[in-house]
Design a protein that fits this description.
Order of helices and strands: HHEEEEHEEEEEEEEE
CATH topology: Thrombin, subunit H
Distance between the termini: 37 Å
Structural class: mainly beta
Number of helices: 3
Helix content: 10-25%
Radius of gyration: 17 Å
CATH class: Mainly Beta
Mean pLDDT: 84
Shape: globular
Strand order of the largest sheet: 4-3-2-9-8-7-6
Number of domains: 1
Low-confidence stretches: 1-24
Strand content: 35-45%
CATH architecture: Beta Barrel
Length: about 190
């Protein structure tokens, strides 16, 4: 499992001093999510040996069912025509909370590339439509540790890891996504060519 300073996303639930999950003040559904049961079941339904699916919007989904919604967008300088891409965390939620309002939000993903780094396996590829891409960290059994879905990158096919940065280039070699594997909410997107 990857080291992560944000303990909410290290595969567990923040623990109180007495070792119990911090659920004080949460609704019953949030308590179930914090304990992992509901969220883990939902993730296991969608990422298993028969199918690999991620929520079909810009987000990071973790094996424990936590989700970080991403805000990915581009800005173009009208004077120079230079385009810059951005991808930042917007908020945290749970997969159970998302499914409460839209259970059909999942999309299948297909592996196009794989890279091993320090006993960690990362895969990348496409979503159900040509504009989609994804990157995932999986364990030795192929189970999801975390997955990042991008609505508008196109399939991600070239994966490398250098200096703790996972880099993915899309199928048209026009875009590079870089992820700090020690803090996966640090995402940089670069236009390689127009």
């Amino acid at each position: 499992m990857i080291e992560n300073t944000d303990k909410r996303h290290a595969g567990g639930v923040p623990a109180a001093a007495d070792g119990t999950a911090e659920t004080a003040g949460m609704s019953d559904s949030c308590k179930a999510g914090a304990l992992g049961t509901v969220n883990n079941q939902i993730i296991a339904e969608h990422w298993n040996k028969e199918r690999q699916e991620l929520p079909g919007f810009d987000c990071i989904v973790y094996a424990n069912g936590d989700v970080t919604i991403l805000n990915c967008y581009s800005l173009t300088n009208s004077s120079t025509g230079e385009r810059k891409l951005f991808c930042r965390p917007r908020c945290d939620t749970t997969i159970a909370s998302i499914e409460k309002y839209d259970a059909a939000e999942w999309t299948g993903v297909d592996e196009w590339a794989r890279v091993e780094h320090e006993e960690k396996t990362f895969i990348g590829g496409d979503g159900a439509m040509g504009n989609m891409g994804f990157i995932a960290h999986i364990d030795g059994d192929g189970d999801l540790i975390w997955g990042i879905f991008f609505w508008n990158t196109n399939p991600l096919k070239e994966l490398t890891v250098t200096g703790g940065i996972l880099s993915a280039v899309n199928e048209h070699s026009e875009l590079r996504v870089e992820i700090n594997i020690e803090n996966i909410t640090e995402i940089t997107m670069t236009v390689l060519r127009e």
